[in-house]
Structures are given as structure tokens and as C-alpha cells.
Amino acid sequence: MERLSVEKIIDNINLEKCFHAVAEDYSFTIKIDEYVHYACGAVHDGHQFRKELWDNCLHTEYERWYEEDPETKNMIASHPIVITGCDSRFEYDLNRTPEDAVFETAWGKQLWNTPLPEAMKTKSLKKHAAFYKVVHALINKLEEKFGVCVVYDMHSYNWQRWDREVPTWNLGTSNVDNNRFGPSIEAWRQSLSEIKFPKNIPSTSKINDTFQGNGYFLKYITNNFKNTLVLATEIAKVYCDEYDQIIYPEVVSTVAQELKTRLPKHAAEFYNTYSK
Fold first, then answer.
1. Strand pairing category for 149-157 and 38-42
2. Is this model's pTM higher than 0.90 or not?
3. Which of 6, 15, 45, 116 is the most exposed place for a label (fewest CB within 10 A)?
4. pLDDT digit string (tens) for 117-129?
């Protein structure tokens, strides 16, 4: 893996080079092993939190971890194109608009002891902007090359905070073209529901049951690229103990192995249907 400037990353994409890189400021990683008609993203995988923010932050390290999406990068790491955030959403949230990306309160609790100086916010928002420059270049290249593209937008959510039964998998589709892509969305939901987990974890899969797919990553791509479907794919945090901060590696591994075959199969069907 190389450390590259945003400009160099974009040059590589425009030249269709295969590479593994971390951004110069270590805010995100991208790897392209092959130019294919699908990409994977894990914008909330990051846990890094700038040291200059520590003393001013009222949330504990555990509270931050609880709201992040740990292991989502590992679930999609085997695929040819993967872009992931390295920084915690508590510094800036890649799944929110630039205006809302730096939190003042987070999940009902004030985040900062004293309001963040503008210079601190600007530092974070530069990273947010850089990430989206690369996303734009990447999807532009894939649409240009293949005509259509599908993006698997991986997230996880805290299922134990709900006071009702919630699905193992949730697809948020309220901001994508359901008339056009409905069959592909349903095929992805169906495929996810067939995954068999260890530890007697049930496998249920629903659409817009817990989340509706209102994230900025999905909206940014959908609004800028007319032939790309973004599948906001949320797994309940059945792969960890969300209260004791314990990861279950055998469950993470199961998800990664299942997605290794299911995801390219779904992407191939998507391409065969919509590239005509």
C-alpha cells in the first residue's frame, strides 16, 4: 500500500491503474485490484480520532466505538474495488452532508466540552471533501467504462437498542430508483436472507425496516450518477457484543466468506440486466 495525495489517487483512477493506497493524511484507504462494474464502501469503519480533539470530547472511546461500524471493511475486503474511511464519524461523518458532518451533539449527548474552533472543523471538512473528490472520480470512471455500476454501501447497526424484533440485514432504498432497480434490490435482499450464521444467529433481511437509506454517500452518488445503484446494506451487530465491546471473529469471517461469492454474483446479474 502506498501513501498518495488525492491528486495522485485520481490520476491513477483516470489512467485505470490498479493500486492500493492510503490518503496522504491517513483519512481513507482505496484499493483497486481490477476495474469492474461494482465497488464496495465502508464509510463508518474508521475509529481514528485526532489526538488534539481528545481532551475536549465528552464521549468515551467506547461510546464512539458503539456508534461506528467496526469490521465492515473486513466484510468486503476481498472485493476488487474497496474504499473505506479511517477516521471516526465523531470527528466528521462521511455519511452526512458537509454542513452536518461535524457533530455538536451525538446521539442525544453534547459532544464537545467547549464548541469546536472553526479551524478544527475546517481541518476535518477538508478530509470529507477529499474523500468525495475520489468517490466522484471512481464512479465517473466505472460508469464511463461499463455504462452502469452498483455500489455496496456497507454499514452496521445496534440491534439491541430497538424495542422490537429487527432484521439481521436491512436495505435502505428510499433515495434510489426503485422503479428501475427494484428487481435487483429484491435479489440482493433475498441473497442476504440465505446467509447461514454460526451461534444460531437468525438470518432475516428486510427493506426500509430500520433505516431508509438516507446517507450522504448514497445520495451523493445517486444524485451525480444516473446509472449507478447504491445498495445501503446494514447488518445488525450480531457479529459482536455491542455492550461489552467484544468482536466475534467467526461471525465476521462468515459474512466475509458469504459476500465473497454472493456479492460478485449479484453484481454480474445487475450488469447483465442493466447494461443493455
1. parallel
2. yes
3. 15
4. 999 999 999 999 9
